[in-house]
Design a protein that fits this description.
By secondary structure, this protein is mainly alpha-helical. It has 15 helices and no strands. It starts with 7 loop residues before the first helix and ends in a 10-residue tail after the last helix. The chain folds into two domains: about 80 residues, no CATH class; about 140 residues, Serine Threonine Protein Phosphatase 5, Tetratricopeptide repeat (Alpha Horseshoe), CATH 1.25.40.
């Protein structure tokens, strides 16, 4: 895709469109979800997505939006960036700037999991001491589990020890991310489900409180009827199609 040249007025126009959708009610409500509003305007995610759809994919614009430091601009950056142009260095730079779960999860769910660097970042970031970088490792793995239709079981099986090592981390956003990743991997297919349930059962009997929480939280979902039904439907779909489905787009 050819690079589109952006004048400063174009970035300013996009920011103006964002700010026009801001409301005090939305900004005041962010605290209820643990999202700091210091650098936020108060724009609903549905409005950010609508603007992203109008703007289209644009890597240069995404970089400019991210540099503003504005919460909504950073969410918009995730929706408009071009995954094939995102570099490993950009991913590390953005991850180091994560300061809340909403930006972290949106960037991983809408952008980073579509890059060729995704699995490498799961392993790398999982060892970080920074709460939201470590959270990003597991938000990214959960996103890959839900969206990646190309990778085989091996890539996800290799991540189960990463999950297990991180499970004792007591920090709220980390342990919730670890559980999310384990639940996501376990819902891909029967093979990964069996292996994930084994890990979850082991964690559920751990001497570490956070690991026990992760194990029990994952088991509640992975052993429930909803997951069993979903796995059965997916098995039927794979059998009927006989081919790998293309990866869906969120944009």
């Amino acid at each position: 895709m050819p690079e589109r040249s952006l004048a400063a007025v174009d970035v300013a126009a996009v920011l103006a469109a964002l700010k026009a959708k801001a409301t005090k009610r939305t900004r005041d409500g962010m605290g209820r979800y643990g999202i700091p509003s210091d650098h936020a305007w108060g724009v609903a995610v549905s409005d950010i997505r609508a603007i992203a759809k109008d703007v289209g994919r644009d890597h240069a614009l995404a970089l400019s939006l991210w540099k503003t430091g504005v919460y909504e601009a950073r969410l918009l950056a995730a929706f408009v960036d071009e995954p094939e142009r995102v570099t490993s260095a950009q991913m590390d730079r953005w991850a180091r700037a994560f300061d809340n779960w909403a930006v972290c999860d949106t960037v991983c769910f809408a952008l980073f999991d579509r890059t060729p660097h995704a699995f490498a970042k799961v392993a790398l970031w999982s060892a970080s001491e920074k709460e939201f970088v470590k959270r990003a490792a597991f938000a990214l793995l959960a996103s890959l589990a839900g969206h990646d239709r190309a990778s085989g079981n091996g890539a996800f099986l290799a991540c189960l020890p990463v999950i297990e090592r991180a499970a004792p981390d007591e920090r709220n956003f980390v342990k919730k991310g670890v559980s999310w990743a384990l639940r996501g991997v376990g819902q891909r297919n029967a093979v990964l489900h069996a292996r994930s349930v084994t890990v979850a059962r082991r964690l559920a009997t751990s001497a570490e409180p956070a690991a026990r929480w992760v194990g029990k939280d994952a088991l509640r979902e992975l052993t429930g009827p909803a997951v069993a039904g979903r796995l059965a439907r997916r098995a039927v779909e794979r059998s009927a199609h006989g081919t790998t489905r293309s990866r869906p787009s969120l944009a």
